[in-house]
UniProtKB/TrEMBL annotation:
The keyword Metal-binding applies. It comes from Neolewinella aquimaris. Belongs to the NDK family. It catalyses: a ribonucleoside 5'-diphosphate + ATP = a ribonucleoside 5'-triphosphate + ADP; a 2'-deoxyribonucleoside 5'-diphosphate + ATP = a 2'-deoxyribonucleoside 5'-triphosphate + ADP. Keywords: ATP-binding, Cytoplasm, Kinase, Magnesium, Metal-binding, Nucleotide metabolism, Nucleotide-binding, Phosphoprotein, Transferase. GO terms for biological process: CTP biosynthetic process; GTP biosynthetic process; UTP biosynthetic process. Residues 2-139 form the Nucleoside diphosphate kinase-like domain. GO terms for molecular function: ATP binding; metal ion binding; nucleoside diphosphate kinase activity. This is Nucleoside diphosphate kinase. GO terms for cellular component: cytoplasm. ATP binds at residues 10, 58, 86, 92, 103, 113. PROSITE patterns: NDPK_LIKE (PS51374). SMART domains: NDK (SM00562). It comes from the Bacteria.
Length: 139
């Protein structure tokens, strides 16, 4: 069924000039952008977004990195969006990401890994609502 996922182009990929290439790869893979925002997370908002990882050894670095510079947030629509987007971005660790995936091409490290992709339909909705009001989403 057609459904939605949520993504962020992270500060490393923005800083390295990859916004355009990443959005193009997303579009060419058949995803439709239904919401899009260039923004920056405060440490508070980044901490809240990644609350599920609070207490993990990488949490503080993750929050500090994700609030270190601007990001691009987007909601994407496609048949089987969550799973297909995770295939498109590749493994969390770019060293393990399949050739041609967004992380294989643009990620720096497991922490600075270029893009986020929701891991479930439920989280896709939560994460989309975290970044976008209903009036900012256009199907
Ligand atoms: P993301 O999919 O956005 O969600 C959680 C993030 O935590 C993940 O991307 C990684 O960037 C980061 N992360 C996960 N595991 C580690 C790790 N072992 N060390 C550093 N960062 C990690």
């Amino acid at each position: 069924a057609t459904n939605r996922t949520f993504t962020m182009i992270k500060p490393d990929a923005v800083k390295n000039g990859h916004i355009g290439a990443i959005l193009q790869q997303i579009n060419e893979a058949g995803f439709r952008i239904v919401a899009l925002k260039y923004t920056k997370l405060s440490t508070e908002k980044a901490g809240e977004f990644y609350d599920v990882h609070r207490g993990r050894p990488f949490y503080d670095d993750l929050v500090s990195f994700m609030s270190s510079g601007p990001i691009v947030a987007a909601v994407l629509e496609k048949d089987n969006a969550v799973a297909d987007f995770r295939t498109l971005i590749g493994a969390t660790n770019p060293a393990e990401a399949a050739a041609g995936t967004i992380r294989a091409k643009y990620a720096t490290s497991i922490g600075e890994n270029a893009v986020h992709g929701s891991d479930s339909d439920e989280n896709a909705a939560i994460e989309s609502n975290f970044h976008f009001a209903g009036t900012e989403v256009f199907a």
